[in-house]
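# step 3/5: fold
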Amino acid sequence: MVKNKLFAILLCVTTLLCGVLSAVPAGARSYTVAQVQSLCDGIVAYNGYHDTQAFIDGYLTDNAGSTSEFYVLALSQSGDYDFSSYESALLSYLDGRTVSSATSREKYALTLAAVGSTNRYIADTADEAIGGLGMMSLVFGLHLLNNGYDSRLYSTDGLIGEILSRVKDDGGWAVMGSWGDVDVTAMTLQALAPHYGGRGDVTDAVDRAVDWLSTKQLDSGGFKTMGAENCESAAQVVMALSDLGVDPQTDSRFIKNGTSVMEAMLDYRLSNGGFSHTGNDGNANATVEVFCALTAYRRMCYGQGCFYQLDHVVHDAPSGGASGSGGSGNAGRSGNSGGGSDNGSGAGGNGASGSNARSNGNADSGVGERSDQHVEYNSNGNRVITVNGQKFIEATNAAGEMVTVNVSETENTPRETRVLSDRHGDFQSGATDDAAMRSASADESGRGGYKPYAILGVIAVAGGVCAVLYLMKKRSKKHYIAVGLIAAAGVLFILITNFESTEAHFQPQDVEGDFTVTLSIRCDTIKDLEKKNNAVPDNCIILDTREFSASSGDTVYDVLQNAARSYRISIDNRGSEGAAYIAGIDSLYEFDYGDLSGWMYRVNGDFPDVGCQSCTVHDGDRIEWLYTTNIGRDLE
């Protein structure tokens, strides 16, 4: 009897101990740069668009002056887009309008500067609005001066001195009161970041404020403002840290109980790609602030300078003559590679003078967006960087490092892998790495996913059953052996299966095929009908025509899956193995618009008489997925 008791107790303890040890997380979740870009794409999709330029020309232009400005700021800092329609709309909005808020004026001025405008509204704002509405008008005013604009109200040094004089006793900043506020402190650090390392008083104040922010971080990894933990506060801290070159995912000062501030911010993400304020419904402010924070983080990873060091600034005479290329020394896409403004505060000047903490004074290292560097996205949504005529495709290698692959313009084959430095933006030569051409495949935890926790659950249940059996005096060895075998089978099942997380499933797949095809997804047949699903784009184009690689034997279904992963489009396949039946695409389902509605596909203008998983594709095929309300008659 004693032997049986000891055996049962030992089995229970061993079972539980093994489960606990196997499921202890290794640390905070980690997101690759590719995954961060996917989150940004998800926010664009959340706003109803699968194409960023369409988002700019549509929603952002239509809402110029109201809800678009910070999206435009972020997009201007993340790629080359045409903002002409938005600029015209914003200038039209401002024409003859009196904007009484100094911070609002500064916001509009910064956005105009970000899209390369030379309208005198920017210079007038710098001359008239800085400091007109307390602390935040000083902060946003410094952003203007940091980009080489002059003001009759403040010099850059004078404005920095005014901001430093307002620091609270605890080391933070606030709009009012005697103690620092997380949001205001983080936003102040964003304005001071370009001068960190160049001025001793700035460096000391910034270091103290960063330490203060660390003490204000909650056990959850997040931050509170006005007594409530929220997404926006975490986003502002992520922006500030990124601008200072402090990695918000790995810096130990901003990881509490294994949760980083980046992870805490992204925990507010909703299934539709948007973000909530406090964990409930989607919130427009939270979503756009996360978009800005993710952009700031990506810029840090690529050594492109602070979020508000604008890449497209074009200075011109206040009279509004033709665009010039001198003045600010901003070595951005405007081609201004001069030496900075007189006070050394221009975006390009910071890199040359060494006043930016991340530049280390290395003017030749490529810090910031360089005049010889061009960024675009290929048909699969991958970031393509052209430097001195050479093309590099962004990818994550098997070790989880962010790398670029040098691609021949003629043969489109990888030649060598180069690691992209997270401090200087340099391309460091490295060995060829075939895995780097594949997109990031880790799930959103980055630490082994759900399996350790599932195994822990199985083992914990088994241990509990053993304990109950023991208490019920069911002490025969065969009972415990049976429980152990069942638990072992459960663990084996978990190990041999692979249920993907949403983030893992939607990672783009770099398919190196033998030829290319095109694919589009549209639902024009419901354009004039009352929308039953807010996810349906207004233009009814779920995916405009895109090119995809394919190989011999690939099917229409294979190409659709590739498209779905690359552009984060949900696909509902209700068919059996080898006989796929697409019931829904992007939350638009069969029968949503009547008993005869659903999805059909067309290849080169014809509707095949076989299922999509039986229809093989060939070079140059034009694949269309179309929504019908009348079993195809409305598609003829």
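# step 4/5: annotate
Confidence is low (pLDDT under 50) at residues 13-27, 319-373, 396-403, 407-448.
# step 5/5: archive (pending)
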